[in-house]
Every structure is written in C-alpha cells, then in structure tokens.
Amino acid sequence: MGMYLNSISPFFLYRSECSKPYYVDKTEILKELIPLAEQGNSHICITRPRRFGKTVMANMIGAFFGKGADASEIFDRLKIAEQENYRKNLNQYNVIYIDFSKMPSGCTAYSEYISRIENRLKKDLIKEYPEAEIRLEDALWDMLELIFNEYNGERFIFVLDEWDCIFHKDFVTEKDKTIYLAFLSNLLKDHAYVRFSYMTGILPVAKYSSGSELNMFIEYTMGSESKFGQDFGFSESEVDMLYDRYLENCKKEGKKETVTREGLRIWYDGYFTKTGIRMYNPRSVVASLSNNNLGSYWTSSGPYDEIFYYIEHNVADVRKDLALMVSGEGVSAKIQEYAATSMNLSTRDEILSAMVVYGFLSYYKGKVYIPNKELMDRFDEMLQKEASLGYVYNLAKESERMLLATLNGDTDTMEKILSFAHNTETPILSYNNEVELSAIVNLVYLSARDRYRIEREDKAGKGFVDFIFYPEERNDTCIILELKIDDTPEAAIQQIKEKQYVLRFLGKLGEQPKYTGKILAVGISYDKETKIHRCEIEEIMR
C-alpha cells in the first residue's frame, strides 16, 4: 500500500460517505466497469459539472477494485453485491488512484506539481516491487512496463480524478499543458499494464487534446451520451427517498421540518441527462436536508463572480439571452462541450457552452436554461450589480421601486417604470410577443424574488396565469399578474376573475388558507401602435 498505489484513502473516504444519513447507493455503475477491468486496455472519461459527485464516485471505484483494504463491509450491503461476479472482482486489482487537484504546498510551477506525482508513485512502485530492476530516475511508464514483464503480467487500474485541474491554474503555460498531455499519453496509451483507466473532470479530453495524445478515451458528457446519465446527480425517485428519510430523521430528533419536497425541486432540480431525465444537484440536496434549510450550497466560493467571469468580455452578445433566461425562458444555443474553456471565450455560443459545462446553465433539446432557484438567485445578484449589462442592469435596478408601487397601488409610477424600460435605450427586446413582454416584467420585478416565489404560467383556477407571486410570509400581500398586448389592463383583471386564479391562494376545501394577506389582481397592457403601457390594480375578495 502506498500514496497512490493501492492507497487506503479511497476506502476510508467512501466508507465515511456511506455512513452519512443522506447517502445514495450508486454502485450499479460498477456493472459497467467490471467488464472493462476483466477485458483490459479500456479507457473512459466521464465529465460533469462541479458538485455532481465525481470524487465520491472515484473513491467508490478505488475502494471496490483496489487491494488497499477489504471493502466487503461496505459493498456487501449495497446494490452491486447482487451481481454474480461481485465477489470475484471485489478488491482483486492493483489500483493507482491519483487526485490531480491536490497541489504541493505553495506550488507556483507545473514542474513542482507533476514532479510530486511522479516521485510519489515511483516510490510506491519501488516499495511494492523490490525485485524489479527499477530506479527512481526511470520514466514511470518504463517502470510499469518492467513490472509487467518481471511480475508475470502484473496490471493496473488507473483512477484519475479531476484530470483537468491544472488547466485552471494561473501558473500553467500552454507549453506545460502540452507536456501534461504527453505525460498522460505516455502513462496510459498502448500499454499492456493498463487494465483500464477511469478518468473524470469538468471538461472533456477533446477540449485539450486536438491531436492523438488521448484519443484512446471514450468520453461521456452529460449532454452527449446517455450511458452513465443517472450515475451522477440525483433522480426524482432518489430525492423522494432522501426526503422520506429526512422526515423520519426530523421526527426522531424532534426537529420541525423546514424543507419541503417542492422546495427541493425549486431550488436544486433543472439539469437533464441526454435522454431528458431531470436531475438534481446532489451536493445541494444533501446539504439542504442535513442543515434542515433551503439555501445556496452549490459552491463555497463566489458564484456571482464566477458567472460574470464568463460573460464580462462579451456582454453585448448575451444581454438578451440573460433577460430571457432570468424570466424563465430557454434560449437556443449550439453547445459544443469540447470548445468550452475558462478563458478566451469569443462568441455567444462559447460563453453559453462554458456555462453549461460548469453547471451554471442546463441544456436540453437545443436550448439553455437557468436550472433552478439556487442559480437563479446568483444571476439575479449579477444583474443588479453589473452596470456593464446596460439596459438589463437599468431595469433590474428599478425593481424595488416597481414592487413598492404595485403594493401601494401606484399605477402612475408603474407605467413610468415600464415606459423607461422600453425607451431608455434601443431595447434588446422588441415586444413582438408576450414572451418578450414577460421578460421585461421579470426584470422590473427582480427584487420581488427576495420576498416572493414567482411562478410563470402557473395552473390556477380554470387556466394558466401569467405570473403569480407567492409570499414567503403567510400574512403578506399575494399578487396575481396578467399581461396583455394590444388589449387593456381591465381585460387582464377580468380574466383573472373569470378564470378564478385566486384559488391558488385559498388551499383545499376544509383546510386553513395557506395565505392570509390581501390578494391583488394586476393587469399590465402594451399597445404596439402607441407604444404605451397601462396598468390597473384591484384588490380581490376571497
């Protein structure tokens, strides 16, 4: 056992994961990997956004295959134990596990980074195979070849986590990247000592390897391949199971449940597999249930800064897209996952591609979306801070005044703000349809999301209301908002009444109403010919 060769770290890390109250058994992925170990000379690279369980999965694979520790205490009770060839493969292989995100202390050069990995693995090999004629100054691949030949065909599984980490380090040069790719190629490609290599990261190999260095890898991204689609992230049924467990835990511990099942969907759902299955961000779901709180857990660093990083040099290209996506719409985009990188983004599609790969946006059937409230809140924050967004920023800054005017019945101010929204600059949205008018309304009510859960086209009464504002506080004012183009705000309010949209706030028959505050019907119209907005507000009786 060594630092990288048959390390016991994956076993202990995965055992710890399994003991947590909101663990989800994802061991069925091993059914796909066991044949690769048995056949030999196979290479796969699975890429997913951050916080989607890549490292947990890598630890599970290392703990299952590796000889470092007897992992039967973990896997005997998991799904993989039901497989016929389970026992035959458990802890039967030499595993070289390298987490490429681990850096030497104070690392400022690629040579320091890679030397640490090479030297530690070489020492592991010398210690484990003392009879082999290998020396510290030998190349790693030469050492492994000698071991293969002198130890009766000794072979290895390589588990390489966060393989693309160095591409995001400031000290790594373009020359260093080329050298690194050559290192991986020399280590893995066309060697009999490789049983199989399992590599994971955020960006696909094809992004960096334009030639043949790593063309032996079969790549599996979230958007391009259905295989392994449900092995990362949580499905609806898995979140249902975790939520039931949460309710049981709260009951045992005498805690009041503050997380709802619907809340989990609103906050953390919104990603898609290649086949269209919806997936939740796993880290956020687990953190939410563990903390008994719905909040932002997607990243511990500044998500606002990270999001803006990708668009700051190309703001003009994506302002309209941002306005539409913040309103809940998807925008058409040509996503090329291999082209996404953290720098030198020069086109709209490259910007959106990078944001999909890193998990800030989701992609499905040719469109990109802001996936959930956790990310939507970060986009809202950006829109209200970045003056370089121009028109979009100006609308967002008016949002506090717009909400206050609505609650006070001040339709004159509302109309002035909407007129400003349309006339302050050459508008990026032309009001050709209600979708674009809806986007404007979303922007001018942006700050209301601190106080309300705003749903678009929600089923209410006998139809679908354009906007419904559910207050966070039970006794706060409820708002139903209907839009009309080339019609009147009075007609919008009449529709609200006739369709009985108010029923969304009243609850089921015989139950106490969920909301006790007053209910406002808000009609907003826009006349294409006169370019005039009109607003009307009426309090609705329960």
Write the layout of secondary structure elements.
Blueprint: H1 9-18, H2 30-39, E1 42-47, H3 54-65, H4 72-75, H5 86-89, E2 94-99, H6 110-128, H7 140-150, E3 156-161, H8 174-188, E4 194-201, H9 205-208, E5 218-220, H10 236-253, H11 261-268, E6 271-272, E7 278-279, H12 282-291, H13 303-311, H14 315-326, E8 331-332, H15 348-357, E9 362-364, E10 367-369, H16 373-383, H17 391-397, H18 399-407, H19 411-423, H20 434-444, E11 452-460, E12 463-471, E13 478-485, H21 489-498, E14 519-527, E15 532-540
Parallel strand pairs: 1-4, 1-5, 2-3, 3-4, 13-14
Antiparallel strand pairs: 6-7, 8-10, 9-10, 11-12, 12-13, 14-15
Helix pairs in contact: 1-3, 10-12, 13-16, 14-20, 18-19
